[in-house]
Every structure is written in structure tokens, then in C-alpha cells.
Amino acid sequence: QEQLVESGGGLVQPGGSLKLSCTASDSGFSTYDMAWYRQAPGKQREFVARINSSGFLSYESFAKGRFTVSRDNAKKTVYLQMDSLKPEDTAVYYCNAIDISAWGQGTQVTVSL
Q1: Is the pLDDT reported for residue 2 higher than 80?
Q2: pLDDT on residue 26
């Protein structure tokens, strides 16, 4: 069964940057469409960004212009570069292998002074 492991979360000041990583265990990674979601305290999990196996990209409106999703198939890793972070970006961030409905355990991102 596919395992996804996120890393790169932490505490950052408003306006700062973080780069999240999600590494897969499955050799089929390169064929999967991958996505990032986030869940803030007391809120539902929401879509952040997506990168298909073809390279097609999609972003939620709040992520456009600030977040960049990318992938390295050789490393079986998908990334989320987050710039100009705001306090409202505070959440647990999850990666998702869409085709096989696999989720990582999440990584905490806290944006605060």
C-alpha cells in the first residue's frame, strides 16, 4: 500500500516561506495525480493545489501567486513552495495521491509572530 510522508512544516513569521515535501513509497508515483490539502482548526479540509502526472497544474484561489506545486518523479516526491505566508495559512497540510486515494499523515504549518 502506498505510503506518503510529508515534511517541511514549522513555525514561520508572516511574509515568510516554507517548502513542504511529500515522498511516496510506491514505484507507481510518476503515474499518479497528486494534490495538497490543508485543514485549519475547526474547519473542513480544503484543496490547495494539484499537479497531474502530465504536469497540469491547478490552484485554489488563495494559493495562486503565492504557492507553487512541483514534483520530482525520480525522487517520488511532490513539493509545495509557499511564499508570502499569512496567519490564515496556519493549518495541517496533507498530500494526496488522487488515483489511489492515499493520504499522508500531515505536517503542521504555523504562521505567527
Answers
A1: no
A2: 82
β pairing state of 46-51 and 91-97: unpaired
Pairing state between β 10-12 and 107-111: parallel
The closest of 82, 76, 79 to 109, measured between CA atoms, is 82
pLDDT tens for residues 58-106?
999 999 999 999 999 999 999 999 999 999 999 999 999 999 999 999 9
Please report, for the chain, how many H helices and E strands are present, in that order. 0, 11
Question: How many whole angstroms separate alpha carbon 21 and alpha carbon 14?
Answer: 20
94, 6 contact by CB (below 8 A): yes
Between CA 35 and CA 46, with CA 40 as vertex, the angle to 5 degrees is 35
- What is the average pLDDT value for the chain, to the nearest integer? 96
